[in-house]
Design goal:
By secondary structure, the protein is mainly beta. It is 0% helix and 51% strand. It has no helices and nine strands. A hairpin with a 3-residue loop joins strand 5 (32-36) and strand 6 (40-46). The radius of gyration is 11 Å and the shape is globular.
């Protein structure tokens, strides 16, 4: 867990850099988290083409079975 700051989703679930999420049947690793006013909790990741992308992950939920963050 990031010792500098604890991030939580809108549902109160703790989320951290290094965890993985699934988007369009691809699994990505969270490289950075930041809160942006009026945008929410933003996760940065690198897509399969090597481009840095960002997504609002604040309303996602953790699937413990798959060990992934998934869209709710």
């Amino acid at each position: 867990m990031n010792k500098d700051r604890a991030y939580t989703t809108a549902y109160g679930e703790v989320i951290d850099v290094g965890q993985k999420f699934i988007l369009n049947d691809q699994i990505y690793k969270i490289e950075k988290l930041q809160v942006i006013r009026y945008a929410g909790l933003i996760a940065s990741y690198t897509n399969s083409e090597g481009k840095l992308k960002k997504i609002n992950i604040g309303i996602w939920t953790y699937n413990a079975e798959k060990n992934l963050w998934v869209q709710k």
